[in-house]
Amino acid sequence: MSKDPTHSLMKWIVENSNVLAKPLKLYTVSQDYWNSENHSIGAQCTMDVIGVKSVTAEADLICAYCDFLKVILSDHDEEPSKRNHKRPKFSIRINNRAFLQLVLDHHNFAGDRETFNKILSILNQLNTLPLEDVKGKLLALRLNDSGIISILQILSVNSLEEMAEVIGQEHSSIEQVKQLFKLIESYGYSEYVQFDPKITRGLEYYSGIVFEAFDAQNQMIGGGGRYDVMSLHTGATQQTPAVGFGVDLENFMLKQKNLLKRKYSPGIDDLIVPYREENRDEANEIIALLRKSNRKADIVLKENQALGKSFSYASRRNAARVILVSSKEGSGMYRVKYKKDGREFVLSKEELLTFSPPEQDEMEKRLIALQEVIVEQKNDLTLEKLNTLFDEMLAHLKKKGMEFQSFSTFLARESNLPWNSDMQEFESLPDHRSLTTCVRSFTADYSQRKLNGA
Description:
By secondary structure, the chain is of the alpha+beta class.
């Protein structure tokens, strides 16, 4: 997992500043990055302009942002002749962090970095929380009343003209925003942008123009702004002019808009587990075979990893099957565990591609239920409870004429289990792991014999 990709990008720029020609325009797609604004992990697409101090960089970038949004928000299922007549609805809302900074400096709020960051985090919720809730959170920081009034006044203006009356017509921050809107108009993108003093961005490294994009349902798509000061946090001795934006691809494209037609699933079909390193080559052959057949397959890469950890990894990956590659099953045969119901089968290489497990019969259902009870009650299981469980199980099998004797014999064969075949009960509480393994092994043995018609 990577940090905020903007930080990584700036670090690279600072380290290579002597060889990079500026202005520099970049786009990146970062996977598994940590979004420190909304505390989530995802994939992000970013565009950045480096080395330009003036708002011409913001104007060019925001217009490129508009073109990007036109593409990802357009209805790709429409006929090409109809697409141009259906304009995507979105807006890019623009502000200047300098307006807020003036108020914070005036009331000495910006000097305390911890308080400053908390204020930014609260104000970043203005588009999702009522104003009274935001005010309450600011009061909880024990800010003085006059300071809170000034902050809310700045955030409540309705236009850039009104902001100019509060800040001062000639202030450079007002002139920056005016110039930016004029440049965007010259690009022909005025209809997509608007001034919004509530846009603050929650990250402290933004130092000037900031902006966020929203769709027709008022859901935020992404945002960005100027972050010249970030270079000072990456080892540079002076600021590097920089402005950029990002889009949370996973959240927006996959979850909200379903823009990827292929169904998104974090799970996999198969996890291949080499039992020993000597089985690694064969395991690699199996995974190659499965992937060529369009199955989503993964393999345990850590050498000589314990089976318990491999099964835990399979659970984290939400694997439908676990395929154990070992020499125990014979040449070209593999033990396969289906995670959905816990059943196991020994399959050939060809059957790995074609096999579908048959419906469970009553015996299998009861055996699997017994496993689950043993696992769930492992910390509270007494000898009396355990014998009651197995007595009920054996009584049911005997009544149905099912595998009563074979189950009892199987239990007796396990040397680690204190099972009394004559009394049909445990003489003492067995090791929990050995007991679970025994029942699981019998279930697999029964399923395999049923599959073979034995």
